[in-house]
Write a structure and sequence with these properties.
The chain is an alpha/beta fold. The protein is built from twelve helices and twelve strands. Strand 3 (46-49), helix 2 and strand 4 form a beta-alpha-beta unit. The protein binds 1,4-dihydronicotinamide adenine dinucleotide.
């Protein structure tokens, strides 16, 4: 089976090669999958994509024409693939459902700690031997209420971590996780109540038609002044413009994001000599109480190794005609 890996990043290639052990003929390219780059898949049986690649209707139709039969996602989220069209075209799609919920939840916790305790500003001062502590006050996490929106695999680990800090946990999800209720006394509430009660809100939902712009001005209105919002899920779960307004009028105390609504075309590239013309991002980036990382929550050795292992297993199931348990 010949496999074309789109959006291949230098750091992940060794993990995929190690796991492949020469089983598949893999070609790595840096290009993201788009309607223009789809033709690079001519002659390949399978393609392997990540969150910045787009498998829309038109792209899938092209891939079908070029003979592509399988799409192996190197991600858990699959909002970038039109699954209905893929099914219609008989292109099989599989993801990596759980490569390391710890990596993401720990990153979400890192964003929270760095923002609350103003670590970036503190370190910036110390680098210049300025040991002044003015305006560096944070708050104890102990006894604060953390609202976990989406209590699936990653949200559950976030609950465990925040429970360790002595926080009170409330959650919102369409499905309740009894273990979280039992182990960490997490209480399920409506999203409205969660917004009203939480000192910190952390998002761990997939992006779909129901979660698109789930957090908008109406929800922000209900929130406590000074609330900290953390988003490691998908950018468009937040209405970023509404979030920016609320940061400007100081309703939101701080924002930590690893994902950004318009991250396609921007994230995963070095644009330091070609700063993106994206006003929203420029404004957010200029704020001291906003901490942005470039979709790197998944970047741990364990996660990369698990991604590679499951990706190769997905390809192996298809090539040997076995049932692929990760098929979407
Ligand atoms: P999961 O499927 O285990 O959990 C998602 C939870 O969201 C489930 O409990 C589900 O019931 C709930 N949910 C779905 N739709 C909902 C709705 N409309 N309202 C309320 N709850 C809803 O997924 P997991 O592994 O926890 O990942 C969550 C998301 O995190 C992924 O979909 C992905 O977009 C994002 N992610 C981000 C990464 C990063 O590097 N920043 C890496 C991995 C995942």
């Amino acid at each position: 089976m010949k496999v074309l890996v789109y959006s291949a990043k230098e750091f992940e290639i060794p993990f995929l090669e190690k796991e492949n052990k020469g089983k598949f003929k893999i070609t790595f390219i840096e290009d993201a999958l788009t309607s223009e780059t789809a033709m690079k898949a001519v002659g390949f049986d399978a393609i392997c994509i990540f969150s910045g690649d787009t498998a829309s209707n038109i792209v899938l139709e092209k891939l079908k024409d070029f003979g592509v039969k399988y799409i192996a996602l190197r991600s858990a989220g699959y909002d970038n693939v039109n699954l209905l069209t893929a099914k219609k075209l008989n292109i099989k799609v599989a993801n990596v459902p759980a490569y390391s919920p710890y990596a993401i939840a720990e990153h979400a916790a890192s964003l929270l700690l760095a923002l609350n305790r103003k670590l970036i500003e503190s370190n910036r001062r110390v680098k210049r031997y300025n040991f002044n502590l003015n305006n560096l006050i944070g708050f104890d996490l102990n006894n604060k209420t953390v609202g976990i929106v989406g209590t699936g695999k990653i949200g559950a680990i976030m609950a465990k971590i925040m429970n360790g800090f002595g926080c009170n946990l409330i959650g919102y999800d369409i499905e309740e996780n009894k273990e979280l209720k039992r182990n960490y006394k997490l209480k399920y509430v409506s999203l409205q109540n969660l917004c009203e009660q939480a000192d910190i809100i952390t998002l761990h939902l997939p992006l779909n038609k129901d979660t698109f712009h789930l957090i908008d001005e109406e929800k922000i209105e209900a929130m406590k002044p000074g609330v900290i919002i953390i988003n490691t899920a998908r950018g468009a779960v937040l209405n970023t413009e509404h979030i920016l307004n609320a940061l400007e009028n100081k309703k939101i105390g701080a924002l930590g994001i690893d994902v950004y609504e318009n991250e396609k075309e921007i994230f995963f590239k070095d644009l330091s000599n070609n700063i993106p013309n994206d006003n929203l991002l420029l404004k957010l980036n200029a704020m001291p109480n906003v901490l942005i990382t470039g979709h790197h929550a998944y970047l741990t050795a364990e996660a990369l190794s698990n991604i590679a292992e499951t990706t190769i297993n997905n390809l192996e199931s298809w090539s040997s005609g076995k049932v692929n348990i990760n098929e979407l």
